[in-house]
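Session log. Operator J.P. requested a structure for one protein chain; no other inputs attached. Running the standard single-chain path with token output.
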Amino acid sequence: MNNPNPEEIYKKLFKRNHQAAESYLLVFKKLSGQLSKIELGLWSSITQDFVEKGWHSWRCALDYLDLSSFCQNKLGNEALIHTGEFALNLLELSQQSAQSYLKGVHIALEKDRLDTILIIESCGQSLKQSYPQASNLLTDFYEIAFQFEMDALNCWCETIGSLAASGRQAVYDYVQLSQKYPEVNWEYASKLYLLSKLLGRSYIEMPELFTGKLHLEPGSEHRGKQFRKLLLQTARTHPDIDWLQVLILKSLKSEKIHQIVLLSEDDPHLLLALIEVVDCLPQDRTDALRTWVEEGRKLSLQNHAAGIAFLKLESNQGQRRLDRILGRVRLSDHQRSLKIYLEGMSDAPLRLSESQSGLVYNEENTIYLPTLIGLYNTIEENFKYLKLAITHQLASYEFGTFRFRYLDSPFPFTHFFHSFNNPDLASTLFRLLESARLDWRLEHEYKGLKQLLRKVKPEAFQSLEFDQDVHELLRFVLWLTLDGSHKGDELSEIQKEILESISILRIEGASVADTAIVLTKCYTLLTDDLGDQSICTKIPSVHYRGRLDLSSSFSVLQFGLSSEEAAKDQQDAEQLGPPAEGDISELVQGDAPDAEGIELLESMTEANETSKKELGPETVEMEGRASSEQQEHSYLYDEWDYQINDYRTAWCTLYEMRAKDENREYVSKTLLELDHVSRQVKKQLNKIRPELHQKIKGLVDGEELDLDRAISAVIDRKSGFCPSEAIYVQKQKQLRDVAALFLLDMSASTDDVIDDQDSGGNKIIDLEKKAVILMAEGLEKLGDRYAICGFSGYGRDRIEYTVCKSFDDSYDNTAKARIGGIKPCRSTRMGPAIRHASRMLQETDAKVKALIILSDGYPQDFDYGSDRSSKIYGIRDTAKALVEASGFGVISFCLTVDPSGHDYLKEMCPAKKYMVMQDISQLPTELSKIYQSLTTS
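Structure written below.
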């Protein structure tokens, strides 16, 4: 069209669309002075072709006309014609793709991204050639492509070009993600996507990692670049998705994670280690962490596995070193000194143990404390805090919390709290007030604690996180119990009354009965103001006070109370019993500050008569009634890793359980079948002689006189009776103080039939069971304490330790049925089982502790060391566990029916403390001989 006639073209366009025709005339006038006649003709022809290509193609004509003047001004005449022809080519595929292209060009011109147009056209043309029918893909491509800056666009288009070889769906997914997350750093994301599609997709779908608080923090752009560079390096060496997902999720919770990750300094292995444990690292202590990471790096240069375990906090060395750097105190490291402190503070038989929940509390004469204390920056401060927590728990015993009595009830706290309409509120208030009383008593009795308590209390309150529903008055009570400061003129009337009531507990010598009286006052004040049932009682625990467990299972321990204190405790307890008519004044004599206290106690007692009847067995049980025996208890155990020459801390989870399978006929059948062997075993065990001396009285000859009997003989003689000559005492060996634990291998291989003509088709597990049954029969007559357990499991997270008979169990039908029900299970992770067996033996306090292990092969499990085919890891860990047992005074012996046992038992067991059974049918009789040698001098 050399000489375009705008009138004719206008008429043709008008027949298709009035708006397109009008727009054409306006733009034609603007371009007439800019384009040559040939160029103007080409432009008009393109416009006309747009309109005539389809029913709605006039929309493309409108977009092209809208763009034309702008495009000619920005890019020139040739580019204007090229843009129209390129769009016409897309129009043959679909109207939508042509429109998205034209609108995209308009965006690029507006943002002065002129150099991006050719790159986009080139990439789009390649897609069209690869997938000529993919109209939707091209439409989406052009909609997103024109949004990018040049650097990001190059990376993005490069990724699309690479993905094109993987198929249309791969490109489509990538473009869809691009549309959904346009704010992503595509320059970086595309590189990651090329390294691993899964990694890239994971990153793109969580763009907050780099679009939020990390690299956009003021002054941290350089760190962001370092961070991205490090992650790309890691992606090249570890193109799996898990580590990046973990990093992204943890990054969203932490503002300083990039600081920790950068400490790995371009080492992908160290980076992956830090990512795993970042939640356990104090991110506000960057300098201390830098010191710790540097030590881990140096260690990794000497022993790579040890360095990684150090930084993943898997090794004992890594954890202990971080604790020292951060000033943290680990309970296990200070057990001895704390035990001495405990004994110095009380003459009661109290024990310390680690709290699984991390809370401080006491139960059954045991004080439970957190495994790790890190509230302060120095070991000295944290150790002081630990002693304070112990002392507060001791105070509940020393100052009479558990001497509380109410209506002669065996469950005084439960009945007392249920005398109120809202028992939960009463219980919460009591715990708050009683904990405060104990602190104030400590300040009176132990002056050295006053300064520490006054320092810790405000810090404790500031660290509390309250539920939104907790009423301000309840917070106020807690604030007062922590010595919160206040101004009288700022308090409401009810707050003043609460303050006045609580002041009673500050008086030197305040008792638990005073706490009960103050509770009734505060309860009335709160419920009068707020209503009985509308108060949220979810009060957080004050860290050093922990949880005040008011279980009735507590032993009442006396701490050398004076007669006056003991009498006062008795008097206080009696005051909370039902009063005789007219004796109210005596009931609260010396304790209630005014008549109001008398009325409260009286109304409380009356209310109890009704509520006591409503208490069901479930309510009574909540205060310390032992619930039914749990099926499983979990324990964490370290494991020795010879490759890092250190323990992997809390590496294995062992589940102690009672045997679930039972076979009630097995023991009786075994005894019938092996009657002759049973007699031999008993005969062998009968040869064992007592080794502990016991004073035997009433003998006619001995080392010393029995004074009581001698006096009786003199009296008889003077009275004319014939005196007894049995007036002497003699030391004789009458006792044995032995505890023996038989530990059976219950691995799957024990299901094998014994390859022996005399075996009678027995399996290895049957031989183990029959041996311990015969031993049990003999030991019942000998009188030694013994336990029978088995072990198996699968992996370090599931070691199963089955108790058939514990030291405290009787050898009854239940125990026999459990032994009979032992079945082969899975693997043989021996180290944790030995450590748990040693633990059971230590708890017996027996003079002689013997551990006898019956196995059919070397220790093995699918994750017993990094190399599943290697036996060394399991053997070394088992050897270490046996050395640990010896350190606790446990004598061990390993019996195996594995013919190749000599190869590893000599490395695993102490000298002369193992045996390989050549004739395994002799196991029962050999076991009795071994037992005799272990338990006698």
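Operator note: Residues 210-219, 552-563, 572-630 have pLDDT under 50 and may be disordered.
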